[in-house]
Design a protein that fits this description.
Length: 150
């Protein structure tokens, strides 16, 4: 199934190029991105967070694998392998990186991703995580500080 991108995104701030990004500090995470509306021309060597238009519901007996469509990869974009867990519902947010030396145009409604579902043969836990029911492009949510063992 093809997935279109919405008209909103977060672009990594150029100012943060060599800054330490603390995954336990939500303010630090929020400050590393700037909100934009598409269309946008993604500069070389820059990260962007995109969201799908489609709201998906992954059946409890399947897992969804989401990938970048081939044409976009050939233009120089890369996207980490993304999995939609059984029971996930909402729009999907993706991190995309421009590896090319060229600027790449992204417009609302572009078919950038696709998803395919694979049956799960064993009993699985239904997703109830922090991104359940998200709508629109969602920034990373800070991790909880691990408890120190005494």
């Amino acid at each position: 199934m093809d997935l279109r991108i919405s008209d909103k995104c977060y672009l990594s701030r150029e100012l943060c190029r060599y800054r330490v990004l603390d995954p336990y500090d939500q303010e630090c995470i929020n400050d590393a991105f700037e909100f934009f509306k598409l269309p946008i021309t993604l500069p070389p060597q820059r990260q962007i967070l995109l969201s799908t238009v489609e709201v998906i519901s992954v059946p409890p007996n399947k897992v969804g694998f989401i990938g970048l469509r081939s044409t976009w990869a050939r233009l120089g974009l890369i996207c980490p392998q993304t999995v939609a867990d059984p029971g996930f519902e909402g729009t999907l947010t993706f991190e995309v990186f421009n590896t090319s030396v060229n600027r790449i145009q992204l417009s609302p409604g572009d078919v950038v991703f696709h998803i395919f579902y694979v049956p799960v043969e064993e009993s699985v836990e239904i997703y109830t995580g922090r991104y359940q029911h998200q709508i629109g492009v969602t920034l990373p949510k800070s991790l909880k500080i691990p408890q120190q063992q005494v």
